[in-house]
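Re-run with default settings, no changes from the original entry. Doing this only to confirm the output is reproducible before filing.
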Amino acid sequence: MIETLEILLGIFILLIGALDGVIDAFIGASGGMLNVPLLSLIGVPIKAAIGTSLAVDVVGDCVVAYTYNEHKNVDAKIGLSLMIGTVIGAQIGSAVGSALPSFGLEAAYTIFLIVGGIYFWRKKGKIKALTVHKGLSFSSPKISTIVTILIGLAVGSVVVLFGGGGGGMILMVLLFVFGFPMHKAVGTSVMVEAGSSLSGCLGYAIRGHINILYGVVLMVGIIIGGR
């Protein structure tokens, strides 16, 4: 009976990973909003759930970014500038997250989910506007690079704290600030997210906040779903 339950749990986690991969591939969003609650529900401590979610995101983002790059939908120049900022920010976020008491982190994560849910609910029906935004112009490439890195730093610091690589927020930046078409915005955002997730994952891992077994099962699922 116990072995049957373990098998069913493994299949369920695998399916969640596959769903995570599909979501990542369609909208460039990380699996933190899906993986962290799942892992917490089955008894994984919140910090380990966040660290594991980031590790899973690294694999999923690489798979999705590779697929989008095959179709020329990744802007490496803007992506790398954003990634520099998010990688640094991810170390800040992972350090803060590891230092917070579990209860405080759980409360912060709950607030993050509620605020994010309200924001996207209010944005429903406005997807068309995202694809035609012209974006902002900068006076010089140097200023554009500095602003891009600073934006990445802010995004990485916040989202890694909650178990995501920032794909959704990076997607909004690419659409609104840089005026990217939707496909290129998604492809570039998952490339950036791969870097921030890896940085955040390492930050949590060196503090012992990773569940390897569940992470591997989720990774198998996300590779299938993401591809």
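The chain has a mean pLDDT of 79. The chain has ten helices and no strands.
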